[in-house]
């Protein structure tokens, strides 16, 4: 049962470690730490992806900044309460990690597969230049009755196709994790730069 559930959320990334390890939380005495990984896009820009790693997988006291790492795991979400409302926080939960050479082309640098369910109506729109976009929020089941809620963005023909999906619909999604910076208005005088994460969808299927 657990293996089947793990199969419905698969991530593989390879990139350069771009931060120190910072403590996140502890479960039954096992510490989990966050680290940022810079993953190259084909366009030569980069996505900065947060990765959660157990202290059992890597020595979190070492400085690995600048080294390349290959991570396999799942894309996880949790709600963090701030400013009187919940904020969806996303990261890659590492199940396997290995340090690699920068030029190892046999490994996928950024790939994700999700098998989940539409949990709010798709938002379809067009950019000023006429490009079609559809935003989806996918619920992916996890063991012990939990779910991860993962925002996805579709383009062009995929966006048109996804715009007709119904809430509760079962979908399969292939794509990549992307990061996007935006400015959050805190008050009239104060703004804050933040990073949002979503799945850029390359292929999707309606499963039911």
UniProtKB/TrEMBL annotation:
Coiled-coil boundaries: none
Molecular-function annotations in GO: single-stranded DNA binding
Alphabetical list of InterPro entries matching this protein: NA-bd_OB-fold, Primosome_PriB/ssb, ssDNA-bd
SUPFAM superfamilies assigned: Nucleic acid-binding proteins
Keywords, in A-Z order: DNA-binding
Entry superkingdom: Bacteria
Name of the protein this chain belongs to: Single-stranded DNA-binding protein
One term under GO cellular component: nucleoid
Pfam families referenced in this protein's UniProt entry, alphabetically: SSB
Record's keyword annotation contains Mitochondrion: no
NCBIfam families: PRK05813.1
One GO term of the biological process aspect: DNA replication
């Amino acid at each position: 049962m657990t293996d089947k559930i793990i199969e419905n959320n698969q991530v593989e990334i390879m990139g350069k470690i771009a931060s120190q390890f910072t403590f996140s939380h502890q479960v039954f005495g096992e510490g989990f730490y966050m680290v940022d990984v810079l993953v190259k896009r084909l366009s030569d820009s980069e996505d900065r992806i947060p990765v959660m790693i157990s202290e059992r997988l890597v020595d979190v006291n070492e400085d690995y900044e600048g080294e390349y790492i290959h991570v396999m795991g799942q894309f996880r979400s949790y709600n963090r309460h701030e400013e009187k409302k919940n904020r969806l926080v996303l990261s890659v939960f590492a199940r396997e990690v290995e340090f690699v050479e920068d030029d190892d082309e046999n490994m996928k640098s950024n790939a994700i597969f999700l098998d989940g369910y539409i949990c709010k109506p798709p938002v379809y729109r067009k950019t000023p230049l006429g490009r079609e976009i559809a935003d989806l929020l996918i619920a992916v089941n996890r063991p012990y009755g939990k779910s991860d809620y993962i925002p996805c963005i579709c383009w062009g023909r995929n966006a048109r196709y996804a715009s007709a999906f119904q809430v509760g619909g079962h979908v399969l999604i292939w794509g990549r994790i992307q990061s996007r910076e935006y400015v959050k208005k805190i008050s009239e005088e104060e703004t804050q730069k933040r990073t949002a994460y979503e799945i850029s969808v390359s292929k999707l299927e309606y499963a039911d």
